[in-house]
Design a protein that fits this description.
heterotrimer, A mainly alpha, B alpha/beta, C mainly alpha, B: alpha/beta, four-stranded antiparallel β-sheet, C: MetI-like fold
Chain lengths: 218, 242, 226
């Protein structure tokens, strides 16, 4: 039995690459869907608000692990054979759409009714008010928590390992199965996650501090 | 009789900024002293040094037999003898009025609850708020909260009480009810050090007035110095800074 | 798409589902209780006057918050057994969960403690209370009250995270589901049922936290939510 070597490290780094790919996919897909969730949550149509709220409560009330399984087996049930990457990305899209939708709804609503009303007295349509008045302001306050959520997203891609997607955690498991040096192997995997997540955490905190400082001046 | 509070050449610095530049004064038991001066003159800092909320860098402070500047002194022993009331009341918002008053009795004096409650009822009656014992601070007006804060301090039977601009956050209508409670205390023989902007109160209740200016004790005298100031700075302060 | 849903095939397993849910609840209660203790202690350490204590707590918190739980639980469970320390699976799961949730709790509670006005602490000092008494009587409960909604959300997230304990073969709800689906080949139905059970536990938990809040914060009960 050999010890941990360069080959293993390359294997882990390859896994890290797929972790990043999955994170980016999840963020893009989840961002688009989350924008839709946010719109539905602040809609003037009551049924749409109710349906979207139900959606959020279901997604936020079940583990991502179960969502992974449901997507993986559900697609199989539907007769669609998809690669593990796609199943994982779709599950993470649903998961992040609910959380991002809620984060962004909070930001839009904190901009407040008065701004909406001010825009509407200028005869802007609701859609125009949203695009021209509300979203530019909301985007500023939404950035720190969104970056903070990306940290959660990166960490949660680790759950794609359970449907067999060979990202960083799965790679670490594979290596550990042959070497059985769990402290070392999972320690290195943790360090790699940390290397990606910690800068994002710091960035999120810096953004938040700047935002608060700017607000205090205003 | 030895002084209740005695400051000698007290120096207090915040970093490079010297706030107290060697001040001295003493206070007899039972005396009511008004500490006056412009903001930034060091009067509140002097008060906070007396119960060691601020550490001093030079000189000495004696309070009821405690040497305040001694690093081996347990500040809690000192603070059992010295009560303090703050500008912002600082009641504990999650506790009722009664709980606020008995907290230190139970924790510091290790008093059984029933006995502590009897004291709470007595001191709350003294400040005219006996019926508020089960209210929460946010249900009270500012003046009532400040009277509770006085009662909370009084419950510990301190030998000296410090008052740090206790009416500055109150509107004039509520100021009166707090000052009346303080005047009652003064008549009852409590040793009091009062940092205040209320010159009328100082004139009525103080036995001694200390005027601070740029970190020095600039003038000391009876309440008559408020009408006949001996220095130009005090005259200026009385005319302009109020 | 032609798929015949068959939930009837799962009927014989209702007892297993419930026992899985019960284990999930036990894991959650144990981890919330212990995680709260660790969280409060670490929040105090983060505010300590001793630099080394602040740094140590900071390293713990940042390490946990920036790595995935599944890696943490593998590190702990497989790591400990590789050096001959074998403990029951549920103990290992609770151990990993507590380490994880303690770090998140610490950050939330610290934010609450930092929001306590300094004047209140000074007032307590002026009354002669010790540091310990000040934390116990003046800081901890009001701090928790301030951040209670955030804590509730964090603990719900932690309950959902207990599902990952299935990956070290814990027989909680997800672990039970994995077994059932491999016996019945009704994976989709199984995970739908389990998903609904998790939603039920989520609502239960929110209700429980609301109730605990009513008992723990009498001012809130008397004056309404401010």
């Amino acid at each position: 039995m050999d010890g941990f070597g360069t080959g293993h490290l390359v294997y882990l780094l390859n896994g890290l690459l797929w972790t990043v790919v999955l994170s980016v996919l999840a963020l893009l897909l989840g961002g688009i869907a989350g924008f839709g969730v946010m719109l539905a949550r602040i809609s003037q149509r009551r049924w749409l608000r109710r349906v979207s709220m139900g959606y959020v409560q279901i997604v936020q009330g079940t583990p991502l692990l179960i969502q992974m399984f449901l997507m993986y087996f559900g697609l199989g049930v539907a007769g669609v054979q998809v690669p593990a990457l796609l199943a994982a990305a779709l599950a993470m899209m649903i998961y992040s759409s609910a959380y991002l939708g809620e984060i962004w709804r909070g930001c839009v609503q904190s901009i407040g009714k008065t701004q909406f009303e001010a825009a509407e007295t200028l005869a802007l349509t609701r859609w125009q008010s949203l695009i021209d008045v509300i979203l530019p302001q909301a985007a500023r306050i939404a950035t720190p928590p969104t970056v903070g959520f990306v940290v959660q997203l990166v960490k949660n891609t680790s759950l794609a390992s359970v449907v067999g997607f060979l990202e960083l955690t799965r790679s670490a498991q594979v290596i550990n199965n042959s070497l059985f040096q769990p402290f070392l192997v999972f320690g290195i995997a943790a360090a790699l996650y940390f290397a990606v997540c910690y800068p994002l955490s710091l960035w999120s905190r810096t953004l938040e501090r700047k935002l608060n400082a700017g607000r205090r001046q205003a | 009789m030895p002084a209740a509070v005695k400051l000698e050449n007290v120096v207090k610095r915040f970093g490079a900024l010297e706030v107290l530049k060697g001040i001295s004064f003493d206070i007899e038991p039972g005396q009511v002293v008004a500490l006056i001066g412009a903001s930034g003159s060091g009067k509140s800092t002097a008060l906070r040094c007396i119960n060691r909320l601020e550490q001093i860098q030079g000189g000495s402070i004696h309070v009821c037999g405690h040497r305040v500047e001694d690093p081996t002194l347990d500040p809690r022993a000192l603070r059992q003898d010295v009560g303090m009331v703050f500008q912002s009341y600082n009641l504990f918002p999650h506790m009722t009025v009664g709980q606020n008053v008995i907290l230190a009795l139970k924790r510091v004096k290790k008093m059984p609850k029933a006995e502590a409650m009897r004291i709470a009822e007595r001191v709350l009656k003294q400040v005219g708020l006996a019926e508020k014992i089960d209210s929460y601070p946010e249900q009270l007006s500012g003046g009532q909260q400040q009277r509770v804060a006085i009662a909370r301090s009084l419950a510990m039977s301190p030998k000296v009480m410090l008052f740090d601009e206790v009416t500055s956050a109150l509107d004039p209508k509520l100021t009166g009810e707090v000052l009346r409670v303080m005047e009652d205390l003064a008549k009852g023989g409590m040793t009091m050090v009062v940092v205040t902007h209320e010159m009328a109160f100082a004139r009525r209740a103080a036995d001694k007035v200390i005027f601070m200016h740029h970190g020095h004790v600039h003038e000391v005298g009876g309440p008559n110095i408020l009408t006949n100031p001996g220095t130009a700075e005090l005259r200026e302060f009385l005319e302009h800074d109020l | 798409m032609q798929y015949e849903f068959n939930f009837a095939a799962l009927a014989p397993y209702w007892g297993s589902f419930l026992s899985g849910a019960w284990v999930t609840i036990q894991l959650t209660v144990a981890s919330v209780a212990l995680g709260m203790v660790i969280g409060v202690l670490c929040a105090i350490a983060r505010r300590s006057a001793f630099r080394s204590l602040r740094t140590a707590a900071g390293i713990y918190i940042e390490t946990v918050r920036n790595t995935p739980f599944i890696v943490q639980i593998f590190f702990i469970f497989f790591g400990l057994s590789s050096v001959g320390l074998r403990m029951p699976i549920l103990w290992a799961a609770i151990f990993a969960l507590v380490i994880n949730v303690g770090a998140y709790t610490a950050e939330i509670v610290r934010a609450g403690m930092d929001a306590i006005p300094h004047g209140q602490i000074e007032a307590a000092e002026a009354l002669g209370l010790t540091k310990f008494q000040i934390y116990r009587d003046i800081i901890i409960m009001p701090a928790i009250e301030k951040v209670y909604p955030a804590l509730t959300s964090q603990f719900v997230l932690m309950m959902l995270t207990t599902s990952i304990a299935s990956q070290i073969s814990a027989e909680e709800l997800t672990g039970v589901a994995n077994n059932i689906q491999s016996n019945t080949f009704r994976s989709f139905e199984t995970y739908i049922v389990v998903g609904l059970l998790y939603i039920g536990i989520t609502f239960l938990m929110r209700a429980a936290f609301w109730g605990i809040g009513q008992i723990a914060f009498p001012r809130r009960r008397k004056l309404g939510e401010a």
